[in-house]
Design goal:
Structural class: alpha+beta
CATH class of the largest domain: Mainly Alpha
Radius of gyration: 39 Å
Distance between the termini: 101 Å
Order of helices and strands: HHEEEEHEHEEEHHHHHHHEEHHHHHHH
Number of strands: 10
Number of domains: 4
Length: 551
């Protein structure tokens, strides 16, 4: 039994395909193939638009894609200005005149199309402005015969170039909120078979409107991503500025460390031989390092200011050396009073003993004042003298009290610098807090290592760093770069209250010692010195007297 043939519908519900003659069937299939190819083109263009992240290239792709499937000789893309008062030229292309402006070729300097005329009324005389104002598509077979729009500028352009503008299709670009974000204008649809300019067909108009819709979504997404990245970067820099400003002595530290880190990374990218010949940081990796550098001290928001700003050994909320000064003065006064009450001592001897006591107290206070500065390393002899002075007493409310408290002695006998062991741990805890804070943030995939790099800026190849004591094998190159930048900035900083900035030669000598002791990556230091990164930094950031000949 033979099954009866079924009817298959023709295009647009017309005559079934199996009822067409051979010629009609061939034309129908050709028409269908053309339609399918147009749809495939539109799909490919839409996919490409969605994937493109370079906004200038995205602009070009919108115009090129529209011209491709409409056969348009020319195309112009306008983007609505931020204040929505004008259309700014983004792309201008005309194939027969070999014109390609805007996009990756640079910005167009032509004046924008105003959406309001000189009287403040909607500019419906300009076709692109009219489309932006109304959201309607305009399809004109011949601009020379069109009514309602002013095409004098087009006529002037044709007169200057010998071009003949004819058919024009102007389509609004609407985003997901139905706002007009741009206008796509196509010029002179071409029929290749007849080698003639024709009108834009309804099908071309429909496809262009579809493309414009996809392009608007892609453009909106691109702008949204760009705006979010710009917001995040601005927020990061604002946080870094706040951290720097928390202490009047570290202003600019984060900025300098971030800049130096990027300079080192870019030099590594330039290397053609040596240990970094095969290392090349991508744009995303550079951005990741830069973000980590800007945030490396974020943990200091939890560090007490008196520790961060501790300029002297006895400083907390204020410098307690002034309390010692008062005690010494009272101690001297009390000694005078005791001596004046002793009848057995002649007046002259009493005066001499008083003077001797005053001199002794003055010398002892001077010694403590020098120790308090922390500018020089404390010797064992100096520490013993502090303990001896601590044995002296004075009277307070009828009771004998030590002139120096145990805490005073502990702080004054800090071997080097101004921080006690307890305070140093508080300072070091900022690295732990940096990781704790940053690890809670949902960084995008391309920035996922920011918490690790930022928190490891005090780790060292010899495993003696903090907070985790990572080994050389566990330390990323990015963390080593950040560590070197942080140390060099700290050595040369001229705004610290507890030390003066080292000269260039002194700083480089210190780094050399740190390399020998395993605190700094030797290959990185060799690059830093060999490429004279330290000199470039010094010219930008250091005072002239710090840049000595040995640097």
């Amino acid at each position: 039994m033979v099954e009866k043939a079924k009817d298959f519908p023709g295009p647009a519900g017309g005559t079934p395909l199996n009822h067409l003659n051979g010629h009609e069937e061939a034309e129908t299939r050709e028409f269908s193939a053309i339609q399918m190819e147009q749809i495939r083109r539109l799909t490919r263009i839409g996919t490409a638009l969605s994937a493109e992240r370079n906004i200038e290239r995205l602009f070009e792709m919108i115009v090129e894609g529209a011209r491709e499937f409409t056969g348009a000789d020319g195309g112009t893309l306008y983007i609505t200005s931020d204040d929505e008062t004008a259309l700014q030229f983004a792309i201008v292309q005309t194939e027969t005149l070999h014109v390609r402006m805007g996009g990756t070729g640079g910005k167009i300097t032509w004046k924008p199309v105003r959406l309001l005329n000189s009287e403040g009324l909607p500019n419906h005389g300009n076709v692109s402005a009219h489309v932006a104002l109304t959201g309607d598509t305009i399809n004109i077979p011949d601009v020379y015969d069109a009514e309602g729009f002013d095409f004098q500028g087009t006529r002037n352009f044709d007169a200057q170039t010998g071009y003949r503008s004819k058919s024009m299709l102007v389509v609004p670009m609407k985003n997901h909120e139905n706002d007009i974000i741009g206008v796509l204008q196509l010029l002179n649809a071409r029929d290749e078979k007849r080698n003639a300019v024709v009108s834009f067909s309804p099908k071309c108009q429909e496809m262009t409107e579809s493309l414009a819709s996809q392009a608007a979504v892609a453009l909106s997404n691109n702008r949204l991503i760009h705006d979010l990245e710009a917001l995040m970067e601005s927020f990061i820099r604002a946080i870094a500025t706040a951290i720097d400003e928390k202490s009047p002595y570290t202003g600019g530290h984060v900025r300098r460390v971030a800049g130096l880190s990027m300079e080192i990374a870019r030099k590594i990218n330039d290397m053609k031989d040596g240990p970094y010949a095969d290392v090349c940081f991508s744009d995303d990796q550079l951005k990741e390092l830069q973000t980590a550098a800007w945030l490396h001290d974020v943990g200091k928001v939890t560090t007490p200011e008196y520790v961060v700003d501790k300029a002297t050994k006895l400083e907390t909320i204020f410098d307690r050396i002034e309390l010692l000064r008062l005690r010494f003065e009272l101690c001297g006064l009390q000694a005078k009073l005791r001596k004046s009450n002793q009848e057995a001592i002649p007046e002259l001897a009493q005066t001499e003993q008083n003077d001797e006591m005053e001199n002794t107290l003055r010398e002892e206070f001077h010694l403590l004042s020098d120790a308090n500065n922390g500018s020089e390393r404390m010797s064992d002899e100096m520490m013993d003298k502090v303990r001896a002075i601590a044995a002296r007493t004075w009277e307070l409310n009828g009771k004998r009290e030590p002139l120096l408290s145990p805490e005073d002695v502990e702080n004054l006998n800090i071997r080097q610098g101004t921080l006690s062991a307890r305070e140093r741990k508080i300072i070091q805890n900022h690295a732990t807090m940096t990781y704790k804070i940053l690890s809670q943030l949902p960084f995008p995939k391309k920035l996922r290592h920011v918490p690790d790099y930022a928190a490891a800026h005090h780790e060292t190849p010899n495993g003696k760093g903090y907070p985790r004591g990572l080994s050389a094998a566990q330390l990323s190159l990015q963390s080593r770069i950040l560590a070197l930048a942080d140390v060099f900035e700290a050595l040369t900083a001229k705004d610290r209250p507890y030390k003066k900035g080292k000269t260039l030669s002194e700083a480089m000598h210190t780094l050399e010692m740190m390399v020998k002791d395993g605190y700094i990556d030797p290959d990185l230091f060799a690059l830093f010195q060999g490429e004279k990164i330290h000199l470039d930094y010094a010219r930008r950031e250091l005072s002239p007297q710090q840049i000595d000949s040995a640097g």
